[in-house]
Design brief:
Elements: E1 4-10, E2 13-21, E3 26-28, E4 31-32, H1 33-36, H2 40-53, E5 59-66, H3 70-88, H4 93-99
Parallel strand pairs: 3-5
Antiparallel strand pairs: 1-2, 2-5, 3-4
Length: about 130
């Protein structure tokens, strides 16, 4: 039995997944996907690549998530699952790429600079 492990990232979220053929069980940080992502939208985001390719219920997936917010984590997991599906079968790549599941979202919060109130916001200027 072949275990594929891949990494997906979005903003500051990192998802490491271990995927192998199985019954379709998905665990996130040693919890079920329903308890880790209580909102159904986030569960759908994670399962999108499996539904697109039509292999729902055929792979067991163990996801380790770290950093960022809940939406960023869900989309990082989606990217990692998409990459793993491409490793299992190269024919899935074109469909996943067309939907944008293999594209990394590099946007991160800009750091605060010294002498400023925020990253770009300056202090209020007073003439008198």
């Amino acid at each position: 039995m072949e275990i594929i492990n891949t990494i997906g990232r979005r903003k500051t979220s990192v998802a490491r997944i271990y995927m192998q053929p199985g019954k379709g069980e998905i665990s996130v940080n040693n919890r079920t996907i329903e308890t880790y992502f209580p909102f159904e939208l986030h569960q759908i985001i994670v399962k999108q690549p499996l539904a697109l390719v039509g292999v729902e219920g055929t792979y067991d997936i163990k996801i380790n998530l770290d950093g960022g917010g809940i939406t960023g984590q869900a989309e990082a997991a989606r990217m990692a699952i998409s990459r793993a599906l491409c490793e299992f079968d190269a024919e899935h790549r074109s469909a996943l790429k067309k939907e944008g599941f293999l594209t990394r979202d590099p946007r991160m919060v800009e750091r605060k600079k010294p002498g400023r109130r925020k990253a770009r916001r300056k202090f209020q200027f007073s003439k008198r």
